[in-house]
Amino acid sequence: MIGTGFGGSAIARRLAGRARVLVLEKGRRWDPESFRQSLDPRYLNEVFDLYPGCGTGIVTGSGVGGGSLIYSMVSLRAPSAAFDWTDRAGLRFWPDEFSRASLDSLYEKVEREIGVTQLEWVRPPAPEDAWKTVSARDIVFARGLAAIGRSCDALPLALSGCRDCGFCTVGCRFGAKQSLDRTYLARAEAEGAEIRPRVRVERIGTAPGGGYRARYMDLDGGDRRVVEAPLLVVAAGAMGTAGLLLDALRHKTLPRLSGQAGRNLSLNGDLALGGYVPDHTTEEFHGKIDGSITYAWWDRDFTLQCVRLPIAVLAGDSTPFPIPDAEGRRWGMAYKERMRDLPRHLLPIGVLGRDDAEGVVRLAPDGTPYVNFRPSARTRGMWKESIDASREIVERGLGGKLLPTAPETHGLLGTVHPLGTARIADGPHRGVVGPDCEAFGHPGLFVVDGAAVPGPIGVNTSLTIAAVAERASGFLLERLTA
How many domains does the chain have? Predict the structure, then answer.
């Protein structure tokens, strides 16, 4: 197996004890004490992987546990209608085998494994349960929605005993985040799975004697080694998996692989917005990252969440949300004072919705994957409606001001929810793997991460990736038996 994110961890958990399972992971093994409550770029370079490109940038987690080390713990089931969304050709993203109903029992299985807890609007009477309450920022968000006649729900999070320190996205020092290294992977290792961190897989392909082989480099010692196995599971994330498959196409090491590898990248409709409101939303570095969501515009193919952005990303000329002073300047003492005041009045809003999966991943000459994303007219229309909805919440509901958006100021987007670069499909003309997550033309080769999810789902992706992997684990066990 390659990768320890939500797809790979679920597979490792189900196959451990029934086969010899070796998991190769590029990142290091973290423990709570090794995480830092810091936005030092040198530290962030260790805990994040950044994939640049044209039109977007993609951020993923780095380490044993993958994206679960740095995600906001939001654990949502994809709404039923998301499985019926269609692409620009009018074809469903998902094959007929998939629906909300068909995945519900698997969603429940994942929720038990990672310990999902439903947040509450009112502080519970038991002091030890106080951490289950949403943040002050979520109360403001819900009040703005109520003022315009819209509803809001508290989120379910994979969380236990939170201290509300607000550093969730740089690694939890207190063991409150139920990340995969503490759940799926810990149980897989207890059953005999071997996790080998700090190794980078450079090439995959068929083995001369049958099965598959992976060549990897030890990032600490520099040695290169080859491992062979009858089954190979690729779960390196939508970008890492795309890079390995594109390399295999370039070097013809997987000769029957579909040419759809690297295509159909979805950003899951991600867009970051921000409002400056009169209400006191929060102090910086306090409260949970995400606490509430509204489905009020689901008929327009998007959801809105109340999120938190570190103030460090808002300072200076690179800020996605410029906050000029009363005279329109972004320098001087008045501007500094306004930036100092910003955390207490900032209402960040995260958009997740249906894009057209119009992104493409390519390989640079050195083999590094990069992204090209040019939003379609329908995607741009969805984002425009989400901006209008957010403006209504911030300005009409709360008497504030919606700030300029990143596309307006820099022409750039970004996502932490990439999907679809080796998507599930009915045939190799539309995707890379079948409904069982096995690659077309290559029996025994499976893709079980965000790359396999065939299109946007309009909510956070972790639970769906794990549920699809849980489903695929049954087919893997059948293949092992064979």
Answer: 1
317 within a domain of the structure (yes/no): no
d(CA 235, CA 273): 31
Domain presence at residue 112: yes
**CA-CA distance, 306 to 273, in Å (whole number)?**
10
- DSSP code string of 158-186: EBSS----S-GGG--TTS-B--TTTTHHH
Say what the pTM is: 0.95
Cβ atoms within 10 Å of 25's Cβ, excluding its own: 27
The token pair at 102 is 């068909």
SS3 annotation, 384-441: HHHHHHHHHHHHHHCCCEECCCHHHHCCCEEECCCECCCCECCCCCCCCECCCCEECC
- For the chain (482 residues), the mean pLDDT of every run of 10, in chain order, is 98 96 98 91 92 89 96 97 95 97 98 97 91 93 98 97 90 96 98 98 96 97 96 97 98 98 97 90 72 97 88 47 63 75 85 97 93 94 96 97 79 86 98 98 98 98 98 95 84
d(CA 51, CA 371): 7
Would you say how long the chain is, in residues?
A: 482
Q: Is residue 169 part of a domain?
A: yes
Q: State the Cα–Cα distance between residues 434 and 437, nearest whole angstrom.
A: 5
Domain extent at residue 253: 6-309+345-481
CATH number at residue 214: 3.50.50.60
Look at residue 338 and tell me if it is in a domain.
no
